[in-house]
Design a protein that fits this description.
- This protein has 100 residues and is mainly α.
- The protein has one domain.
- 67% of the residues lie in helices and 0% in strands.
- The protein is built from four helices and no strands.
- The longest helix is centred in the last third of the chain and has 30 residues.
- It is rod-shaped, with a radius of gyration of 27 Å.
- The N and C termini lie far apart (105 Å).
Length: 100
């Protein structure tokens, strides 16, 4: 014959759940560096969105304290360099074609 156990004794003991803060990298900073690097290969078209994402990411990082400030700055630097490099290339190419 089964032994009767009161309902309060069948419950599991309380185990506290630990919540760890999510220290993620800012997604705009990550997209900025990815777009900047792809802008070097894709005729500089992705450099302009990389610059925009980098500025937005730096502003959000300042407000929220997320990680990724270095990624955002690298995205800005590479984006500006890529944009200037492709502009210089196009200007040189058009001058050479004009003088032919």
């Amino acid at each position: 014959m089964p032994v009767w156990i009161p309902p309060h004794e069948r419950q599991y003991p309380f185990v506290p759940v630990r919540h760890y803060p999510q220290d993620g990298v800012n997604s705009m900073a990550l997209s900025s560096i990815i777009l900047a690097l792809s802008g070097l290969l894709a005729t500089g078209l992705a450099s302009l969105p990389a610059i925009v994402c980098g500025h937005i990411a730096r502003r959000k990082i300042k407000k929220t304290g997320e990680r990724g400030s270095g990624l955002a700055m690298a995205g800005l630097i590479v984006g500006y360099l890529g944009l200037m490099g492709w502009a210089l290339f196009l200007a040189t190419f058009s001058l050479l074609m004009y003088n032919m």
